[in-house]
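Thread title: Can someone regenerate the structure for this chain?

I was given the following input by a collaborator and told the matching structure tokens would be attached. They weren't. Posting the sequence so someone can regenerate them.
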Amino acid sequence: MSELRSALEALAAEDVGNLGPRQQLERITELLEARNRLDAQLARSVRAAELQQAPEDDGVTSMRSWLRGHGRLSPGAAGQLVRNGRALEHLPALASAFADGAVTAEQVAVIAPVATEDRRRAARAQGVDLAEVDAILTAVAAERPLQQLARVVHHYLACLDPDGPEPDPTEERSLTLATFADGTVVLRGQLDAVGGEKLQAALEAITQADRPRGDRRTRAQQLADALVQLADNALAAGDLPLLRTVKPHVIVRIDLADLVDPATGPGAAETGFGAGISAARARWLACDGNISRVVFGPEGTPLDLGRTHRVVPPHLRRATELRDRGCVFAGCAAPTHWCDVHHLQHWIDGGDTSLENSALLCERHHTKVHHGFRVQRDPGGRWRTFRPDHSEIVIGTPLLV
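Best answer:
Regenerated them for you:
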């Protein structure tokens, strides 16, 4: 281990910034191989420690718990490391390739289900030579992409239990939403093959329909925007089940003083699910929503519940849709049903709720307009878009003659 530490210190001392492109890639290739070899030794040691019940020495009941607490690994990473160690015991060819750096820990994790006790029992009952399976899967892992390896493993497991009951797809689905203090929501989950196909088809339809020129969003950003748009469409359609006796909708609570103050006002508003958002974002949501006035007494008791006021009535929205035919932001082709009605001069600042003061903007560009961008309709009826520095976004280059 002391030699390993010395080698790592020597690596850290190298000036990688002066290496050429080819040297950089060669160094990365060697480091990846070295990492595979280290991961193999880690999995081997974890399994040996588990067999010895070594975590008990630190007052911990399982290797998985020890890895979470002492190794600071996530529950998923700790569990997978333990499963890899167990699987490698029964897959010597894979263990050897792993120790040589030819396969990765991620590939071992894909193959590991093959070596669970029930799968090994089923293989023996059907006369399947696990050693042959081990050799084949190791060769695939060393030569083929991860996705192809996963398909081969899935095919083997399906053949191992061809007459087994078709699993309930709902048992394979899970989704958790974790909300941070700033209101950011992190999604974690998995779907079965059919459920995943449905979601991918819906997201892809929205993603491919919204590809304006000059779009610099990453693929991940495009899919995230599509997921939000999918929720927007479902909420706007009004067909979702009732939520506590009312149709589900986005709720934002904000004091009147913060609503009318032009300042950003971080943390001034609160959503229905408890996330804190800025007053600026609350004003943006108010562009195309309902506003209810509630007056509280000194004890915090509601004294007056004013009538809900629709900022943009249905007939005005229809007129705006007929005129604009979609998002008016330069280069965007989002359809009307993806759009909010934006007040060119905000209603809280005295702007009229009128056709002349309205513009259709998709969710993404509505955000842009509330963060410095501006749309303007000239006397000829043409929409123009301006950046925060007041320069105009012009689509296409005029033909010079």
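The first strand starts at residue 174 and ends at 179.
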